[in-house]
Amino acid sequence: xxxxxxxxxxxxxxxxxxxxxxxFFALWRARLFADATTGVLxxxxxxxxxxxxxxxxxxxxxxAVWTAPDGKACxxxxxGACWAYVWxxxxxxxxxxxxxxxxxxxxxxxxxxxxxxxxxxWRGAPRKGLAAFLFFAVYPVAAxxxxxxAEFLGLPVVSTDLWGGVLVTLIMALxxxxxxxxxGVLLALGRRSRLPVVRAFSVGFIEIMRGVPMITVxxxxxxxxxxxxxxxxxxxxLLRPLVGVxxxxxxxxxxxxxxxxxxxxxxxxxxxxxxxxxxPQRMRLVILPQVLTIVIPGIVNTFIGLFKDTTxxxxxxxxxxxxxxxxxxxxxxxxxxxIATTGYVFAALFYFVFCFGMSRYSLGVETSLQKxxxx
Length: 375
Prior knowledge:
This protein is mostly helical.
């Protein structure tokens, strides 16, 4: 008998998946009840949600006070969250003590910054080089003169002592994020440098910054920095903690980048050298693009931690967003048992929205890059 008679000349049709292995219920069963431990944790989590959700819903929504001229309605027995207090104090939360007639300058600055950030982060946007130039070179100068004012522009000077609220929080966070990434890259490269002086400086800076609490860095920047410069050149009271926050974040960013450099295969460095590229070219064209892709989770985690750590600047007398919330609740006109709780819930929502947004965007970037590498 011809052995070729037993050979298939056409592929067999693909069999459908077994019943119950696909579909909506199968997906969630695999996620929530994959094994006994997962099932127990799922049941406990659902029980916690069932217990807490009605209480929070009643306090935040059903029994909440949405409109009121003062805090009397919020002090009534059984009253829930006092959202009327948040609405009334929202301008203070947003601008601090910035003069009312000049708050349009803050609005223009924040809207322009938001537009440039969207332009930069939108992966399909055209002319990102122009967007980067505007955001990193033009925008900081324009924002400084617009917020602080300049007589030659016809804008009255507004002292930074009057700045506060969301304005200060976003300034501290954006300045720290923008500065910490490039400086962290330089520190990471310096720590791996063959030049003893560069390596010693980088290692010393990173270890000192990581070895002390952030509050110590803020106190040093606020109290010690003016001692090293003439009184006429003393840094602004808002600039001092801003520099401290940026330097502190740079040390942690440097370690994140160094981890990515160590994870790079040696062949990537050798291949770049075989192409005849100089050290700056190797780093800029071959190594750093791959390193930054690898350490995206660590970079975003550092950014999120930096955004939340801006609340510590209140220790040195800066009225950030959380400090304005704490100050506003002391208003005797808005005294009530739920005022402080409502203010802190509002602050938690504010920080959660920004941190969750950064996390989801980074996840989208990771997914996009992973698809590109797969193709």
